[in-house]
């Protein structure tokens, strides 16, 4: 079997739309995953009419990860999507190690010291921000693994069940919504338990769920668009 067959019919000697969409979605997934972890420690208030809900700032970035895996699942199948998810888990671990290195290398390596311009006050602020990131990174790692795995498996199951019935919109929304609820519950409980009150934790979970469900509905046209570009369909093709 040649390289072209191995890589789902994509010619390795030239740039194709299908190859571009695969790498675009993989890049979007990884960048969004990192940004979600780095920005989750900031909590924002979202005003939804009479309802005010607390939402971590990384919520929007995290929503893009589901867009990416749904497109990959639809075009390339469950195996590719699972590879991206497992790589994301590994990258979250690498990220945690690198954050610890940046915070504490001078404390454990006698041959390294901070530059004169790096004052004790700046170090304290740096550690204050990124030590919170360690906890949210761990919470995100656990929540991400469970929810992303659920997203891929639910999407694949619905894809197999509804083959030929033009229900991409259904599997995109249903798989994303279920996995987002799982993610929000696990992440908020682990990241903010003992830090925020239970009322605030409940509001955070509710806020994440509401925003993520809205994002799941809004990203459906983007899933169709990226699928159509990858498969060479008309951009407005809503079949599948």
UniProtKB/TrEMBL annotation:
One function term, GO molecular function aspect: transmembrane transporter activity
Transmembrane segments: 20-41, 53-72, 79-103, 138-156, 177-195, 201-226
Signal peptide: none
Lineage top rank: taxon: Bacteria
Record localization: Cell inner membrane
Pfam hit, one: Vut_1
Main location: membrane
GO cellular component assignments: plasma membrane
Keyword Membrane: yes
Keyword terms, alphabetized: Cell inner membrane, Cell membrane, Membrane, Transmembrane, Transmembrane helix, Transport
Membrane topology of the entry: Multi-pass membrane protein
Family as reported in the entry's similarity comment: Belongs to the vitamin uptake transporter (VUT/ECF) (TC 2.A.88) family. Q precursor transporter subfamily.
Function: Involved in the import of queuosine (Q) precursors, required for Q precursor salvage.
Name used for this protein in its record: Probable queuosine precursor transporter
Species for this entry: Maricaulis virginensis
Source species taxonomy: Bacteria, Pseudomonadati, Pseudomonadota, Alphaproteobacteria, Maricaulales
């Amino acid at each position: 079997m040649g390289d072209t067959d191995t890589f789902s019919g994509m010619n390795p000697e030239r740039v194709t739309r299908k190859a571009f969409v695969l790498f675009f979605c993989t890049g979007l997934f990884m960048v969004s995953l990192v940004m979600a972890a780095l920005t989750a420690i900031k909590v924002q208030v979202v005003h939804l009419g009479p309802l005010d809900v607390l939402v971590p700032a990384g919520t929007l970035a995290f929503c893009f990860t589901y867009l990416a895996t749904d497109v990959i699942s639809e075009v390339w199948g469950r195996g590719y999507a699972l590879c991206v998810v497992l790589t994301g888990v590994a990258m979250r671990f690498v990220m945690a190690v690198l954050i610890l290195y940046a915070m504490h290398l001078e404390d454990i390596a006698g041959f390294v010291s901070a530059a004169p311009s790096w004052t004790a006050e700046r170090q304290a602020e740096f550690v204050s921000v990124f030590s919170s990131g360690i906890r949210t990174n761990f919470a995100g790692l656990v929540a991400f693994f469970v929810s992303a795995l659920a997203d891929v498996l639910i999407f694949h199951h619905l894809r197999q069940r509804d083959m030929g019935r033009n229900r991409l919109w259904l599997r995109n929304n249903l798989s994303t919504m279920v996995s987002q609820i799982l993610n929000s519950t696990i992440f908020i409980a682990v990241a903010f338990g003992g830090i925020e009150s239970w009322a605030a934790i409940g509001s955070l979970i509710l806020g994440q769920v509401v925003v993520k469900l809205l994002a799941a509905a809004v990203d459906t046209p983007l899933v169709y668009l990226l699928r159509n570009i990858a498969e060479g369909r008309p951009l407005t093709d809503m079949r599948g």
